[in-house]
User: What shape does this take?
Amino acid sequence: MELHSAGEDAMMLYLGEETSPEVSARVQAAVSALEEALGDDLVDLVPSYASLLIIYDPMTTDHLSVAHRVKQALAFLRSVSASEGRSVVLPVYYAPEAGEDLENLAARAGLSTDDVIALHSGEEYRVYAIGFAPGFAYLGQVDERIAAPRLATPRQKVPRGAVAIADRQTAVYPAVSPGGWNLIGRCPVRMFDPDARPTMPVTVGDRVRFEPISRDRFLAMGGEL
Amino acid sequence: MSLKVIQPGILSLLQDSGRRGQHRIGLTNGGPLDREAFDYCNRLLENPAGSTALEVSFGGVHLQAQVDTFICVTGANLPLRTNGETRPLWEVLPVAAGEDIQLDFAENGCRAYLGVAGGFTIPPSFGSSATVVREHMGGLDGDKLHAGDELPCPTVNKRRRLYLPRERHPHYSHEITVRVIPGYQQHHFSRLQQRRFFSHGYTVSDRCDRMGYRLEGPAIECDIEGILSEGICSGAIQIPADGQPIVLLNDRQTIGGYPKIGSAISLDTARLSQLTPGGTVHFAPISPHGAHNALHLASSFARRQPLMERRP
Assistant: This one.
């Protein structure tokens, strides 16, 4: 574990060095422990793959007090068992018309598009982080065979619901936005709805599976092409 | 009851003190880029701290009051006129229904805050009225002002005509020093690179907005291209592969994978956000203790600033 001052109102806690469910579980456990330890001095926590950014109110506390309380809280962490997260299934219509890069990605990997779909939907992913845009959940890790680098030129407009791969990460775009990930399909479930509670179907630490669905089912669920 | 938008200006956004505690669903902060000027605006109007005001970037705004109230403009030195008459900034001014309020283009600085007595009444989304256009969040339908918009505000018949004496107005210079808490990733930057960063001036590029200010100057080399994506605090200074620093501000992405050389303190990012392309930035290191101290001293100093009252 490493703890550093990150800014005038933030400290960075590292809980590992690699992307793994174990490190992510430690991050999750730290989230609950620090919420309790820091109480009203805590403004926000930003969990990610192997780190936790702790944002505190610099008008009510300082980095020394925060550091002290974080270390104390984490000393007890060893005995805390990590939450397994909820299991969430997201339907995906995989097809070239719904994922413009599906055929390219398959060709580069030397696989058929059916193989790509089977590999992508055959894995259980963990939500490692949420960020980039409201509701954008970083899921990992995709099978090495279908890992693909970001596009050299990002698209100006990626549609809402686009299911995409970058390196060994995968995600569903929660809204229309620019983006450089490889698009392989489309999910009809809204990943971020400001009027819904909860606003997102997943949270950091959850486990996600993608379930292939037909074009008709996709449209029936409100998906748009 | 409102102020009606005749001309929206280049970028005018309703802002309160910003969205707090929502990074976990990926929402950024928003809020005023120049917190000092924003706070003075509400304090002069005797509004609760953090009341919704209009952040006017660059100027070019024309509003028409549909209500009797009081306004106050702080921040960048934009020529202000009500009913065609030149009016002072940093002062509470009465406006009557039908009067025009015009803010021309900034001579010095580029962000001004126009507040009304009682604040603009904007329903909060996720606890805040702060407009973040990229997220379609806050303000009026999550967007910047457009001609024809109405900015709701109450009728107010009585307010003290408070003003901040001229010698107390902040000075918005074209050349500033930004204090930086050296980052926890500084081991990825050699001593030579750190010295380069702290000893050269950097120029504000034309890629500067509410997400971040991209600067141009001697490239800073880093021994890694990226890190595992992690949370980014306000003021963080990213060094992408081209070595040109980006100081991240209120509308930044909440997580990212570029290495960071340090983090600028908020007192100085407020000044940075007043710079336009071509402005010069020097960086100076400060310890976390020093930064905490500076923040509290500034807050205590601002609270003790005497406001004067103009008697008719």
About this structure: The radius of gyration of chain A is 19 Å.
